[in-house]
From TrEMBL:
It comes from the Bacteria. This is TRAP transporter, 4TM/12TM fusion protein. Keywords: Cell inner membrane, Cell membrane, Membrane, Transmembrane, Transmembrane helix, Transport. Pfam families: DctM. Part of the tripartite ATP-independent periplasmic (TRAP) transport system. It is found in: Cell inner membrane. One of its GO terms (molecular function) is transmembrane transporter activity. Residues 120-554 form the TRAP C4-dicarboxylate transport system permease DctM subunit domain. InterPro entries: DctM, TRAP_DctM-Dct_fused. It comes from Halopseudomonas salegens. One of its GO terms (cellular component) is plasma membrane. The chain crosses the membrane at residues 12-33, 48-65, 77-97, 109-125, 132-150, 181-200, 266-291, 303-327, 348-364, 407-427, 433-451, 458-482, 494-515, 536-553, 559-580, 592-609, 621-640.
């Protein structure tokens, strides 16, 4: 967002972003609320999406300079040309949308349509470059032209050879590329939640959640770090952005952690992990979850329900690790006199909880995920305007519109790029064959395929936005895992989790670098701390993909047993990672038994939490007994060592 925020210094760009944001929201409301049934004009899906692109694609060229990091105080002539041209191309496809459907322009179109499609393709690539940078542009460009060379590759990677004119019209007219799942999810689901997330931040929701967390947890052992988990989890679940979450809650939580004895890098690492987990926490999660709902053709509420237990397990793992770390290092909480009052905090911010509950009710019980965020945003703004101390003035509304327009423009460029990847895989026939190729490479071994998927998700998550990486893997890898007998929803969540890991894992670790800038710590050291703190998230995807009961896919008994085992296992793993357990005390004081004890706790905890372990030819009961045996041995050994130590 830095490039776009910089662009807002340009009065023209700021004004246009405000106007376009209002028009985009109005068009989305018109389509999503089906107002066409009252006006007598209902848009086709293609017309709606191109309508959004008509407004948002030009803003990419107006608001984001061609060279990143270059400040602009006026829009260059060539950017105006690209903006006007991109808008004209989109208007052309809106006007001819019915003709395109009737005559199948995605497979055969007049020559002038081919030229306009080539121009639109080129402009979409440039928009992707400006929004995502050169690495993402390179991936999207190579993928989008792949069909032209697909027939010349070795048999294992070969696809259907497609001439450039057919590729161009497929990208612009089919439901698989620029008009595909990424754009559909953005147009039908994401816009409303982006409005809600920005409204929440602008009305002071971030400060409320931090104050509430301090009031509830500030005085307990390691309190400020636990505050970070609570506040960042709540804020992140609604903002859907790791970096935004870090920059919103970090400036308050990180100094508080420093005050009670946490190092700069540890405080920044905690904030990074908490903010990353917030994006995986229902009800909002991130844009990727809405794309997932479209892929699986299930209500978003089902995905939110399924993601609840894994995200809760992740935050539980973070919480106990911080508690054990504080216990091992004798870190206290903040004095009660320095903390806000729970009663006063709730009195000032009760409406955030009310709106939050209203959103959950509409999502999970009313199953109105498309319209829920619009109602929640309207409710939040109305209540905010009725409260004197937080009431917006005209400038606040302008800032809100500018922020919405900037975020819409950035995501439009990225979604267009992701759509081009999907279109290329579809037109070349690779989306239907790559899954079988992967199964063949893995030798039919599902665990090897899972490891391949985890590694690929992580690598793509480094160089691409999480949504782009997820969509590619949802097409290429997910069918192979599903065909191998894995639960479809668990597979897609597995991919999402591993794509998110790049935020906390070096060498990129974008979230850790953002937190390091707030804490004034070494970015690389912070990323390694965040990797250690969030290490449980590397295992949780394997837990639920091998035991779908953890995503509520099973009988009540299976779900309860799976959750209990996972909680116990994570508790032991956290104790091993931090070298501390309440009953055993500081394991680092066990001399030569220090590392063996910690290793036994980690191994025993992992076996307990993951009953379906493909590496061991044991049934569930045998694995359970093995894990209990290892953990009991660790406790007995630690207890004996403690008794034998001189007083």
């Amino acid at each position: 967002m830095s490039e776009l925020q910089e662009a807002l210094r340009n009065p023209v760009a700021g004004l246009l972003l405000r106007i376009v944001a209002v028009l985009t929201a109005a068009l989305a409301i018109y389509h999503i609320f089906n107002l066409g049934s009252y006006t007598g004009y209902t848009m086709l899906t293609g017309q709606y999406i191109y309508g959004l692109l008509t407004m948002m694609l030009p803003m990419v060229f107006i608001a984001i300079p061609a060279a990143r990091g270059r400040r602009i105080h006026s829009v260059p002539w060539y950017d105006w040309i690209m903006a006007i041209t991109s808008s004209a191309c989109c208007i052309f496809f809106i006007y001819h949308s019915e003709t395109a459907v009737e005559h199948g322009w995605e497979y055969e179109a007049p020559q002038y349509v081919v030229y306009i499609s080539l121009l639109t393709w080129a402009l979409a690539l440039e928009a992707t470059r400006r929004c995502g940078g050169w690495p993402i542009f390179t991936v999207v460009f190579l993928a989008s032209i792949f069909p032209m060379f697909a027939g010349k590759l070795p048999d294992s990677f070969a696809g259907i050879h497609t001439p450039i004119d057919l590729v161009a019209i497929y990208h612009t007219n089919s439901d698989e590329s620029l008009l595909g799942i990424p754009s559909q999810a953005f147009a039908n689901l994401v816009i409303g939640f982006l409005l809600f997330g920005i409204a929440l931040q602008r009305t002071g929701g971030g400060k409320f959640f931090i104050d509430l967390a301090f009031a509830l947890l500030g005085k307990v052992r390691g309190g400020p770090a636990k505050v970070s988990i609570f506040s960042s989890g709540l804020m992140g679940s609604m903002s859907g952005s790791v970096v935004t979450n870090v920059l919103t809650t970090g400036p308050l939580s990180i100094p508080a952690m420093r005050k009670v004895g946490f190092s700069r890098s540890y405080a920044a690492g905690v904030e990074t992990c908490a903010s990353t987990g917030g994006v995986l926490m229902p009800p909002v999660m991130g844009a990727t979850a809405f794309v997932m709902a479209t892929f699986l053709d299930i209500p978003y509420g089902e995905i939110a329900m399924a993601a609840a237990i894994p995200s809760a397990l992740y935050f539980f793992g973070l919480f106990v690790q911080i508690d054990f770390y504080a216990g091992r290092n004798n870190l206290k909480g903040l004095p009660e006199i320095e903390l806000p009052s729970v009663r006063q905090t709730l009195k000032e911010g009760w409406h955030y909880i009310f709106v939050f509950a209203f959103l959950i009710w509409m999502l999970l019980f009313m199953k109105q995920e498309a319209i829920a965020p619009f109602y929640a945003t309207a409710l939040l703004l109305v209540i905010n305007q009725l409260r004197k101390h937080s009431r917006w003035v005209w400038k606040d509304f302008k800032d809100f519109a500018e922020s919405c327009g900037a975020l819409f423009a950035e995501l439009t460029g990225l979604m267009a790029g992701v759509g081009l990847i999907m279109g290329a895989l579809a037109v070349s026939g690779m989306s239907g064959t790559i899954a079988n190729d992967l199964l063949f490479i893995a030798g039919g071994d599902i665990f090897i395929l899972l490891l391949m998927g985890a590694l690929t998700s992580f690598i793509l998550g480094i160089g691409m936005p999480v949504t782009a990486a997820y969509i590619f893997l949802a097409i290429a890898l997910a069918p192979a895992l599903v065909n191998g007998g894995m639960n479809p929803l668990a597979v897609h969540l597995f991919i999402l989790y591993w794509g998110m890991l790049s935020f906390i894992t070096p060498p990129v670790a974008i979230g850790a670098f953002a937190a390091a800038s707030v804490a004034g710590s070494s970015p690389m050291k912070t990323s390694f701390v965040s990797m250690q703190m969030g290490s449980i998230i590397y295992f949780i995807p394997f837990f639920f993909v091998l035991e779908p009961a953890l995503i509520l896919q099973g009988t009540p008994r299976e779900i309860v047993v799976a959750i209990v085992c996972a909680v116990g296992g994570i508790l032991m793993v956290a104790g091993g990672l931090q070298g501390y357990l309440p009953r055993l005390g500081n394991l680092t004081e066990r001399g030569f038994l220090h590392w063996p004890l910690r290793l036994m706790l980690v191994v025993g905890g992992l076996l307990l939490a993951m009953p379906h372990n493909p590496l061991l030819a044991l049934n569930e009961l045998q694995l359970f007994l093995l894990s209990i045996g290892i953990l009991v041995a660790a406790f007995v050994l630690a207890g004996l060592h403690k008794k034998l130590q001189p007083a």
